[in-house]
Amino acid sequence: MKDNRKTRVAILGSRGYPYVYSGYETLVKEISERMVQRGLDVTVYCHASLFDKKPVTVKDIRLVYIPAIETKSLTQLTHTFLSMIHACFKRYDVILMVNSGNGPFGLLSRIFQIPTAINLDGLEWDRPKWKGLGAKYFKLASKLATKLYDVLITDSYEMEKIYKELFNKNSTVIAYGAYPSIKSNYTKIQRWNLVPESYFLIVGRLVPDNNADLIIEGFVKSNSCRKLVIVGDVPYQDAYSEKVKSIQDERLLFTGYVTDPEELAALYHDCFAYFHGHEYGGTNPTMLKAMGYGCAILALDTRFNREMLQNGKHGWYFQKNKLSIKDVVERAETNTTDIHKLRITAREGLTKMYDWDHVTDQYVEVFERLAKKKNTFT
């Protein structure tokens, strides 16, 4: 008899749904909603403490709320550990784990013979915020992930190469998705006394691996008459972010967090050029937004940024030093025609690889293949 039962997929390791806080939560939202539309039975595990209301389902996505030990270093790990135990006893057809820090928990799904894929993020062990024991843990967790999970998912071809080089493991490349955005309301930037093309833009958390301090210090050395608008902050007291915000120059404008999507869209659309200093990720969601909003992109020269901008076709690069940033600012100022061309062609970089429907189709293909594997166990 043919089995017409829906494939049951559980997603673990994010903050939950609907909770768009960062790249992983956006990924969970976008693919979960689409997978339900494609006929899969989807369950998302959520951090109980983050949700005042706890509906059982939202948009036909099942939700499970799991507690955690609420400390800075243990919240994520304890939540995912307990989620994995719960999910294993529920006997889902497939589990999707996100975050390479959750690598060790693949041992549980392996014991229970539940096929599991893991979405591996950036080079966490290289990030400045993880030093000493933290860096060693992420390196070990990532190595264990390559041994304990049935399918490894990397979000860029360069990240695929790194996992092959470091751990001698193949992975399936499924990028992060994006939306091209054509229009915005330019009046939304007037609250900061800005006009179109009067400013360079940085968007991102004020953490060391995004290099906001370096970009700002290089910009300050330039002869630009434009402003540099810095959108973002960190939700805690932090010496690095305070240092960044203490840099003095009349051309600098710190907006803090901008939560209004129309204001953020206008800031992207109407900037003269967008600075991307992110260093350790694969496919970066902020870069995709900048491309989708039609920004002229000035990016730190990394293997990941070269892949996303197709080796300079959709942006310029700068090196990790103040002089290089000063030079790229002044080059942009004196080559406004070239900057305009970058804005016109930016959205062309959002190939099919970054289309959310295509991204979801690739995940579904992985899950259906893994579900068949489970059927051989049972």
Observed structural traits:
single chain, 378 residues, alpha/beta, Rossmann fold, eight-stranded mixed beta sheet, six-stranded parallel beta sheet, 13 helices, DUF1972, glycosyltransferase activity, Glycosyl transferase, Glycosyltransferase_grp1
What is the global morphology?
globular
CATH architectural group of the largest domain: 3-Layer(aba) Sandwich
Give the integer mean of the pLDDT values: 92
CATH class of the largest domain: Alpha Beta
Helix content: 25-40%
What proportion strand?
A: 15-25%
Q: What strand line-up does the widest sheet have?
A: 3-4-2-1-5-6-7-8
In short:
This protein has 13 helices and 14 strands. The chain is α/β, with parallel strands linked by helices and 378 residues long.
What does this structure look like?
With 378 residues, this protein is α/β, with parallel strands linked by helices. It folds into two domains: 8-177 and 355-377, Glycogen Phosphorylase B (Rossmann fold, 3-Layer(aba) Sandwich); 186-351, Glycogen Phosphorylase B (Rossmann fold). Helices cover 39% and strands 16% of the residues. It contains 13 helices and 14 strands. The protein has helices at residues 23-37, 75-90, 106-111, 133-148, 157-167, 212-220, 239-245, 261-269, 285-292, 303-308, 322-334, 336-345, 356-377; strands at 8-12, 41-47, 57-58, 61-66, 94-98, 116-119, 151-154, 172-173, 199-203, 227-231, 252-256, 273-276, 297-300, 316-318. The strands form two sheets. An eight-stranded mixed β-sheet has the order 3-4-2-1-5-6-7-8, with helices on both faces. Strands 11-10-9-12-13-14 form a six-stranded parallel β-sheet, with helices on both faces. Strand 1, helix 1 (23-37) and strand 2 (41-47) form a beta-alpha-beta unit. Helix 1 packs across helix 13 (356-377) and helix 6 (212-220) packs across helix 11 (322-334). The chain is globular, with a radius of gyration of 22 Å. The model has no long low-confidence stretch (mean pLDDT 92).
